[in-house]
Amino acid sequence: MTMTQDLPEVIPVFPLTGALLLPRSRLPLHIFEPRYLSMLDDALKTPERLIGMVQPYDRPSGDGDGLMTIGCAGRITQFSETEDGRYMITLTGISRFRVLDEVDGFTPYRRARVSWDGFERDRGPVDHDPSFDRSRFMALLSRFFSAKGLNTDWDTLKEAEDELLINSLSILLEFEPEDKQALLEAPSLSTRRETLVTLIEFTLHGGDGEDLIQ
After folding, report:
1. Which end of the chain is more exposed for a tag (fewer CB within 10 A), N or C?
2. How much is the pTM?
3. Mean pLDDT, the chain, as a whole number?
C-alpha cells in the first residue's frame, strides 16, 4: 500500500481529453510533444515517477483550458524510445487525487497542487464487486461488441478478475469525456460497474436507457 505521506503535494499533470487512468490499471501513452517529453524526463528523475492524468475543459472565459477537479496519478512503469526520439510509456494507476490549484513555474508543462485525501481505498488491495452478475454482464458486453463491430479475446475477459475487467473496459471503450469522468469518480468498483453498464445500455438503445441492468 502506498501511504499518503509517500505521495508528493505537487505533481506534473497531463491534460488529455477522453483519457482514463484508474488505480491498479495501466494506460499506454505515446509521448512526442516537447513539453511532455520534458515532463517525462523530469518525472523519471523523481523517486515516485508520477504523472497525473486529468481531463481538461473549456473555461467559459475562453482563458485556456481548465482542469477537472478529480484526476488519477500513475507511476511510469515502462518506457521505450523510438528512433525519432518519441517515447512509448505505460502508466500504472496509483491513486486518484483532487486538484487544489495549479502551480506557476518555469516548466513547459502544467503542474498542480493536489490532495490525496478521500482516496485511501485506491492505495489498498484489489477492489471487489460482490453483486456482480458476470454472466449477464458478459452477455451485454457481447451485444455491445457485436453492435460496434469490435473483436476481443473473450477467454481472457472471462478469466479476468472483476476489477481488472471493469477497469480495463472503462479505460478502453469509447465514451464521451464526461462519461469517462463519471467512471473515474465512481466511489467503488460496484458503482463503476453500474455506470459502465448504464453507458453500454444507453449506446445499445440509442440513448433511451431502457432495460438497464443494475
Report:
1. N
2. 0.89
3. 90
